[in-house]
Amino acid sequence: MNPLPRRSSLLTQITSLLTFLLAVTWIVSFFNVIQLHQIEVGSNFSQVVVGGSPKIILAKQEEPNNAAAANHNRQTDQDDDSYSSKDVHVVFSTDCSGYQHWQSIVSYYSLRRAGHMGPITRIVSGCSSLSQEEAIRTEFHKIQRRSVNHQLRLHFTPSFALGGKNYKYSNKPGGLYSFINHTLLNESVMALVDPDMMALRPIIPQLGEHMTSMPVTRDGYRDLVEYKDEHGRVTLLRRKQLPSLPPRITKGVAAGQHFGLGGWWASAGTKNARNDFKEFNLTMVCGQRSPCLNVPPKDSNGAYTTREFADNNYAVGPVYIASTLDWMDLLPRWHAFTPRVHAQYPKLLAEMYAFTMAAADMQLKFALSSSYMVSDPKTMSTTEAWLWVDEYAKKEHSSTTHGNKERPVGNALRSVCEGATPYSLPKKTMRRLENYGYGNYHYSGGAPVLDEGAGALPTFLHYCQTYKLANHTFAKRKMPHDFFRCDGLPLKLDAEAMMNELDSVENDISLPEVHKKKQMRTGFMLCHLIPLMNMALDDYKSDVC
């Protein structure tokens, strides 16, 4: 009997089985990549694996998935005539760490206290286990029991960190792309903020509509213009040379915080480029013939981006505010561009530059404003709303005159802390908040009366720096991750010590005025961040404990 045919048949069966197993392995790997990056089959982007790493390739526009399609239909029918924060869905992106967990809690409570009425969603990326995810769900469920219309929400995604966990900031575009593809949104506007921001005012869709503008005449701020609403309250602050302020957020009209990163990327590959961008290839990020490129297409008169145009329209950072429809177009680009930018610019701001390039690619211009935040007391840039904080230091005048001139009374720098306690904001801040009339900061009684001398406030305090004054320190990386607990202790605030220190600074004639200004701003941050943390702790205990 000849064994060769049997052996040949066996080899054929083994070969077929191995081929089948390899095919199954490839299919599983393919769908794992799709799942990891939340890319839907038939969505705007396809994935291939090159050298063991996923590479995102811009593909032909396809029909969006069910959630995105529903969002599109819902938003095109949305009534756009709204001035309320009810129509603004605020989102912020975090990882699964305790470090960003406490930030998420205080962010939510500050928005609620400031009177934000729309939904607030925390996007959580990269939890290491289901138990870690469930712990966050359980705690946030307890918090949101007292919220209006289930205002606080969660969305979980896998990690989108690049290079293992080396660049976690890519979680932001990846997480938002997942969120908008898996969430039905009723709101026509979405705002992206950072978790390390505490709100003083809500975000509204209105920009220049029913506003009057006034140039700032104070020295050091003459490049700014203020905008007052129909009640005479100052609500926006921005640089004069910027394009005119659109009426409101709508399809094709976005707004955001003016950032000093500017349009440096738009000089990439030219002799005027910064060192980081001298060899940067925009085509590798945006593709050929993209409006993101800084030279006109050779074969047409298509759009392109100059450095000046980028400075005036794309120099934006959190807070980002756009219509939900525009986010649907922007997020696939931002998600795809981030690894491409990071490959050439492996630094902290890679995802921010990717955002601006994505905006340029779809020609979505941002109305830049200085008034959405303050962060760094040391900056002298007018892209942050420090003008309104510096105005705290205006000295009051006596009712009597001396030599036909009014005399200044008392020290002025202390006013940024005067009246503050561990659980309440300074007196002048409360006067300003009551003038706005938002949220928990209502008028003190009777009919609202416009207080023209109250002054203005930024929308957010972005606590991305370390703040030190009079033996007080607020540094987010030193904050205990379990600050929010039922037996949690409040942060200490000695406002009197802070004011005495500021008096000493103000009366020291050897100190330059710039130093005094920086110290006063530091005092402002401490006398607001600490009470806001403690008020959030009180709210947390009422909700959870």
Sheet bearing the most strands, described? 7 strands, mixed
DSSP strand content: 15-25%
Average pLDDT rating: 84
SS-based class: alpha/beta
The overall strand count is 19
Helix content: 25-40%
- Principal-axis shape: globular
Report strand order across the widest sheet: 5-4-3-6-12-11-13
Q: How big is the Rg? A: 27 Å
Q: Which spans of ≥5 residues are poorly predicted at pLDDT below 50?
A: 1-7, 22-64, 72-81, 397-409
Rounded to the nearest angstrom, the distance between the terminal CA atoms is: 83 Å
> How large is the count of helical segments?
13
Provide an overview of this structure.
With 545 residues, the chain is an alpha/beta fold. It contains 13 helices and 19 strands. A hairpin with an 8-residue loop joins strand 8 and strand 9. 44% of the residues are buried.
Notable features of this structure?
single chain; 545 residues; alpha/beta; 3-stranded mixed β-sheet; 19 strands; globular; disordered N terminus
Task: Provide a quick synopsis of the model.
The protein is α/β, with parallel strands linked by helices. The protein is built from 13 helices and 19 strands.
